[in-house]
Amino acid sequence: MSAIDLPSLALILAALARGGAHVHVRDTDGLDALAHALTALGAMVERAEAWRIQGRGMGGWREPGRVLELGPRPGAVPLLAGALAAHDVTAVLAAESVSLAGLRPALERVGARLTLRRADLLPGAITGTPWPLPALHEGLGAAEGMGLLLAGLNSPGRTGVTMLPEMEPALDLLRRFGAGVHVEDGNAWVTGYPDLTGPDDPIHA
Predict the structure, then answer these.
(1) Strand order across the 44-47 sheet
(2) Stretch 163-179: mean pLDDT, rounded?
(3) CA 139 to CA 160: how far, in whole Å?
(4) Confidence at residue 1, expressed as pLDDT on a 0 to 100 scale
(5) Angle CA(1)–CA(140)–CA(119) in degrees, nearest 5?
(6) Is the pLDDT of residue 44 over 90?
(7) What pLDDT, in 10s, does the model give residues 49-89?
(8) What is the pTM of this model?
(9) Measured distance CA(82)–CA(193) in Å, rounded
């Protein structure tokens, strides 16, 4: 679960941002499940020639009234889990044979509470914190690290992760939405509470 799912990241960022965004993706397999999850969190998602997402603005996600089923798109799990960790909501995530064992300590360090099956397998519940803690998280894979940077967007101060070369396209995507991203001393950092907005130009992921 270490490769970053860029189409999922684009949809999640659009759901976090204010205003609208158009996202064109090549790999749409299972993306409907993530779209339904983002709708349950309060975003407006429409699919035509491109995905059109109307976000809730930073910190605006609401508590979903149903299980967020991501089985067809396991790459979305670490990204959505990270974003949820810094929102004051409880959400149940489901994805077949996906474990949060590698991500759980970092999410709990942020302040989230997790209730998972044995071996930290999903389905399980994530209760985000209204007072997320910024930190430097080291030793995570690319997808897990990006999940923590998404948590950092809704946290005070700066949140950092060990920088990996494969994270560059994802960091560029964060910058397109207006996130303050800096790479220094081998770590990638985001500054909390940016004014994320959907880009004027369509996103291709």
Answers:
(1) 44-47, 51-54, 20-24, 203-204
(2) 97
(3) 11
(4) 54
(5) 55
(6) yes
(7) 889 999 999 999 999 999 999 988 999 999 999 999 999 99
(8) 0.96
(9) 15
Please answer whether residues 141 and 2 qualify as being in contact, where contact means their C-beta atoms are separated by less than 8 angstroms: yes
CA atoms within 13 A on the CB side of 83: 26
Write down the pLDDT at residue 27: 82
Sheet architecture: strand order including 181-184: 136-137, 158-162, 187-191, 181-184
Across the chain, mean pLDDT equals 95
If one counts every other C-beta atom within 10 angstroms of the C-beta of residue 185, the result is 7
Burial label for 133, CB within 10 Å (0-12, 13-18, 19+), is middle
Distances from the Cα of 77 to the Cα of 21, 63, 198, 202, angstroms: 21, 17, 22, 24
β pairing state of 136-137 and 181-184: unpaired
